[in-house]
C-alpha cells in the first residue's frame, strides 16, 4: 500500500525554515561568574555546521512564525547576533555567551528567560571577523568582544597581543593565552567611548611592524581604537578589522 507523502502546509513551512535556519534545543544555561550566561545549544538534524572561529549566528529571539509576533511589531526586533564561543561538531553542540547588559532589549530578555529543552532557531554561522595570516594578532575589546576572541585565540598559531577591558575581574571570560593579554577594569564607567581602553592600547609594547588587529565591542570605542592604530601607529587600515557589536541608543547592530 502506498502512503500519501505530500507534505502538509505546516510541513512545507517547516522544510523551508530548515533550509534557511538551524534548529536546536537549549542543553544548558549557566550563570557566569560575572554578568553573563553561557548557553549550550544542541543542534537538530543538520549534519554539521560550517563554522570558522570568530563567526557569529543570528538568533531568533522571538518566534517569527507566529501571527502574534508580526501583529505586535516584535518582528522588527526578532533577530539578535551572537558570536560563537565554541562549536563541537562531534557533539553537535554550540556554545554562546550572552552578556546581561541590564537594559531591557529583546536579546537580553531572551537569554534571561531561556531554559533547558527550549527550542532555539538561528541562521547558519556567518561573518568575516576571522583570523588572517599575520606575523602576530592583536585583540582589543570588552566583555562581548571576548566571545569571538576566545574562539580565535584557541585557533591562533601566531603570537598574540591584546587588551581586554571589562567592568570587574568576574566579567573576564576564560580566554586562552590570558596571561599574554593586558586586562583593564573600568568599574562603573561605561564601555561606550572608552578612553581608558584606547589609552591601554596606546601603552602596549608591540613589534615595530604591524600585525593584524581585531577590534570589537561598542561602536565608538572600536572607531577610536582603529583611529589610534592607523593615525598614531601608522598601521594600514586593512590591517585593522573592526566589528561594532552595540552602541548606546541603537537597537541591534545587524
Ligand atoms: C557580530 C556581532 C556579534 C555579537 N556577539 C555578541 C556576543 O557574543 N555576546 C553578546 O552578549 N552580545 C553580542 N553582540 C551584541 C548582541 O547582538 C545584541 O546587540 C546585544 O545582546 C543587545 O541586544 P538587546 O536586544 O538586549 O538590546 P538592544 O535592543 O539591541 O539594545 C538596547 C540598548 O541596550 C544597550 N546595550 C546593548 N548591548 C550592550 C552591552 N553589551 N553593554 C552595555 N549596554 C548595551 C544599548 O544602550 C542599546 O541601545 C554581538 C553583535 C554583533 C553585531
Description:
The chain has 254 residues and is an alpha/beta fold. The protein folds into two domains: 9-123, Translation factors (Elongation Factor Tu (Ef-tu), domain 3), CATH 2.40.30.10; 137-246, Nucleotide-binding domain of ferredoxin-NADP reductase (FNR) module (Rossmann fold, 3-Layer(aba) Sandwich), CATH 3.40.50.80. 22% of the residues lie in helices and 30% in strands. It contains six helices and eleven strands. It has helices at residues 9-20, 67-71, 106-113, 146-155, 195-202, 219-232, and strands at residues 21-31, 36-43, 56-60, 79-88, 93-99, 119-123, 137-141, 160-166, 182-185, 212-218, 240-246. The strands form two sheets. A six-stranded antiparallel β-sheet has the order 3-4-5-2-1-6, sandwiched between helices. Strands 9-8-7-10-11 form a five-stranded parallel β-sheet, with helices on both faces. Helix 5 packs parallel to helix 6 (219-232). The relative contact order is 0.14. Bound molecules: flavin-adenine dinucleotide. Residues 56, 80-83, 97-99, 101, 103, 105-108, 144, 147, 191, 243, 245-246, 248-254 line the site of flavin-adenine dinucleotide. Flavin-adenine dinucleotide binds at residues 56, 80-83, 97-99, 101, 103, 105-108, 144, 147, 191, 243, 245-246, 248-254.
Amino acid at each position: 500500500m502506498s502512503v500519501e507523502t505530500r507534505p502538509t502546509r505546516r510541513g512545507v513551512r517547516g522544510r523551508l525554515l530548515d533550509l534557511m535556519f538551524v534548529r536546536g534545543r537549549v542543553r544548558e544555561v549557566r550563570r557566569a561568574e560575572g554578568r553573563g550566561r553561557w548557553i549550550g545549544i544542541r543542534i537538530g538534524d543538520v549534519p554539521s555546521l560550517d563554522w570558522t572561529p570568530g563567526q557569529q549566528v543570528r538568533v531568533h529571539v522571538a518566534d517569527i512564525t507566529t501571527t502574534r509576533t508580526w501583529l505586535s511589531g516584535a518582528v522588527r526586533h526578532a533577530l539578535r547576533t551572537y558570536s560563537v564561543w565554541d562549536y563541537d561538531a562531534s557533539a553537535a553542540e554550540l556554545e554562546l555567551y550572552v552578556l546581561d547588559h541590564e537594559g531591557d532589549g529583546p536579546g537580553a530578555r531572551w537569554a534571561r528567560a531561556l531554559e533547558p529543552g527550549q527550542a532555539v532557531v538561528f541562521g547558519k554561522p556567518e561573518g568575516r571577523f576571522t583570523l588572517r595570516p599575520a606575523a602576530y594578532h592583536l585583540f582589543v575589546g570588552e566583555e562581548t568582544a571576548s566571545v569571538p576572541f576566545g574562539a580565535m585565540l584557541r585557533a591562533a598559531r601566531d603570537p598574540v597581543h591584546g587588551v581586554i577591558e571589562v567592568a570587574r575581574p568576574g566579567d573576564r571570560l576564560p580566554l586562552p593565552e590570558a596571561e599574554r593579554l593586558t586586562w583593564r577594569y573600568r568599574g562603573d564607567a561605561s564601555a561606550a567611548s572608552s578612553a581608558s581602553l584606547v589609552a591601554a592600547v596606546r601603552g602596549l609594547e608591540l613589534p615595530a611592524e604591524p600585525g593584524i588587529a581585531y577590534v570589537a565591542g561598542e561602536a565608538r570605542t572600536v572607531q577610536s581604537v582603529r583611529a589610534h592604530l592607523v593615525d598614531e601607529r601608522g598601521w594600514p587600515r586593512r590591517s585593522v578589522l573592526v566589528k561594532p557589536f552595540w552602541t548606546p541608543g541603537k537597537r541591534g547592530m545587524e
